[in-house]
Amino acid sequence: MDLLNDRLDSKVPAPSVTKGRRRRIVLIGVLVVALIIISALLGYFIPKNNSSSSPSNVTISTSPTTPTNTSTPSITRNSAKKLFGYWGQSAVGNYVGPLGLGTRPIPASEQQKGLAYYCDLGYYDVMNLAFLYKFGGGDVHWGLDHSSLGRYEVDAAGGISANFEGTPISTDAFLQVGKDIQYCQSNGIKVVLSIGGDMHSPYNLIPGDGARLANIIYNSFLQGNSSARPYGSAILDGVELDIEKTGPSFTSEQVILLQTLKQLSPKSIFSAVPQCFLNGVGMDYNTGPVIKSNPELFDYVIIQYYNNPTCSYPFGFNYPEWTNIFKGSLVIGLAGDDTSAITGGFLNPGQLQAVLDQVYKDPQFYGISVYDVSSSNPSPSLPSTYSQTLRKALNGERVGSGYPPQGNFTTEHQWAARCAGTWGYANETCSLDSCKDNWSCADPTKMCFMFLQQC
């Protein structure tokens, strides 16, 4: 009250000798009041703001909608180099051991786990769903195969069914995958549909199939609408072409497929998965012509460096040639273990390090894909930590001593002089059987590799 009186008093005439003094007192009083008001306001607002946000050293976590892996990842993703994981085919169930087929059975309970489990490991940047294995042939039928989970089928009339090895099952299992997709995406992981797959799968491309398939994919897996949406409301981040056979219309229809999808879903990711083998003509026969004619359609290319011994380390690794074939981002496709690459190509940590020593600093090197997540992560019967090794390597850690420069380039005609269960197994042990001088081995479960003769 005194300060207010002083402020009022300053308007009353006063003797000239005290006038200056009173003016100073009023000014000081005003400043004091202003400081008090400012302090009060700060005291009120700062706590309010702090109460609505978390301190910088606290992380808020939410419970996932899907039961997932509860273990804490020992490493985290590095945004510079990507790790792509294939999910859906349960490669761990191939039942292939060092001595051939059927020698390493894996119990069903230890095979493919739910998609969210692998996303929770913290290794992967992108998950590829394998495979849309059936489509084309002039109508709108299609099929989705997730191996140990089952198949989701749509017939030419639009009828929907699901089965496991021919036995009808509920479509709820696929809806659960949709929830896992959304969970993975909420954690920054892209989820992409892989179409094609094995060359023996029942897919075909005849004139008109490219546009038809583009609309099926858009309506069933991307932003469109359809009664046939196996993953429910989940919207995938993109599509990759893993086409492993060819025909008169395959190239043109793949181009139309991608062009149509880019128009329908311009923000989606698009890629291709060629075999590394260049067939003497400078390209993979299947997706190679599309990559060569329309490179602008692809965000990146995954080169399959397994089941392709003529172009894989340590006997002809041809990544430098691919940097000239496609000028964009390149991903090195590897196997998750020996059984995931039955005809060879698995790289142990030393071989992996040798490959990364060659490519890591190349500006086109985008990352590694692993086929698949079931065979490259731990289970009681398969204590593999290969995906963790890949993640560490991509983060810049050394995972092995590396190997000397690779051997000479080989051709298919040189494979017929050595026999072994798998390429990796034979190369590591050198316990090679005697071989024949033709295309067959005494044991039909074994392959022949002449280039191992000096192992």
TrEMBL record:
Any one Gene Ontology cellular component term annotated for this protein: extracellular region
| Keywords of the record | Glycosidase, Hydrolase, Membrane, Transmembrane, Transmembrane helix
Source lineage = Eukaryota, Fungi, Fungi incertae sedis, Chytridiomycota, Chytridiomycota incertae sedis
Q: Which residues cross the membrane?
A: 25-46
Q: Which residues form the signal peptide?
A: none
Domain GH18: start-end pairs: 81-397
Gene Ontology molecular function: any one: chitinase activity
Region Disordered: start-end pairs: 51-76
Matching entries from SUPFAM superfamilies are given as: (Trans)glycosidases
Coiled coil (UniProt feature): none
UniProt keyword annotation of Transferase present: no
Write down the species.
Rhizoclosmatium globosum
Q: What is this protein called?
A: Glycoside hydrolase
InterPro entries assigned to the protein according to its UniProt record, in alphabetical order: GH (IPR017853), Glyco_hydro18_cat (IPR001223), Glycosyl_Hydrlase18_Chitinase (IPR050542)
List GO BP terms, alphabetically.
carbohydrate metabolic process
Its domain of life reads Eukaryota
